[in-house]
Amino acid sequence: MPRLPLVDLKDAPQAIQDFVKGPGELHIFRHMANAPQCFQPLMDTVVALNKDAKLSLRDREIALLRSVSSCIGEYEWAQHESFAREAGMGDEHLQAIRDANVDAACWEESDRDTLRFTNEVIANVKASDATYDKIAARLNASQIAELLLVIGFYRALAVFTENAETPIDASVGRSALDTMQTS
């Protein structure tokens, strides 16, 4: 039984009802509808970090899954595991992400850099200069900003879904992003 009530979307503001017509009535939307003033800004951020992103799908999903797994964010893991697989990751990669294992044999050097950067930001808030410099040699300023926002935003979503005890929905896949309307 979830801690937060699952809002009946028929009782939610019209803007929320209109939004969920595309991706469907996911439990996370029903939980977020408890704070209707936050709903659209959060969804705008989801779209910006996923659909409109400059960061590669692979880099984003490594950082996102590591971020949510570091705080046991099973809801977002369930939604994004298929995205990681679309980016070419298999079971070994997913286990390495859960284990924060930058030395796993499955990784390319760029993947190691992304995972190391994410691990350091999670552990220390600020990545070391050496780790930052490796990321900055490969990513531009916009991509680095997105990487940092992915780490922080999805950790916040994991805090929300874990404390709300959001029931896990089947993954709707990346195609759901195409139906999401931003403000």
Give a description of the structure.
- The protein has 183 residues and is an all-alpha fold.
- It folds into 2 domains: 36 residues, no CATH class; 108 residues, AhpD-like (Up-down Bundle), CATH 1.20.1290.10.
- It is built from 9 helices and no strands.
- Helix 4 runs parallel beside helix 7.
- The mean pLDDT is 93.
Kindly, what is the distance between the CA atoms of the first and last residues, rounded to a whole number of angstroms?
32 Å
CATH architecture field of the largest domain: Up-down Bundle
Instruction: Give the helices and strands as they follow along the chain.
Output: HHHHHHHHH
- Tally the structural domains: 2
Summarize the biggest pleated sheet.
none
CATH topology name of the largest domain, in short, is AhpD-like
- Binned, the helix content reads 55-70%
Shape: globular
- Judged by helices, strands and strand pairing, the structural class is mainly alpha
Strand runs, count: 0
- Sheet-strand content, in percent, reads under 5%
| CATH homolog superfamily of the largest domain | AhpD-like
Whole-angstrom Rg: 17 Å
pLDDT under 50 segments (min length 5)?
Answer: none
CATH C-level class of the largest domain is Mainly Alpha
List key phrases describing it.
mainly alpha, globular, AhpD-like, 2 domains
Task: Summarize the model shown.
With 183 residues, this protein is mainly α.
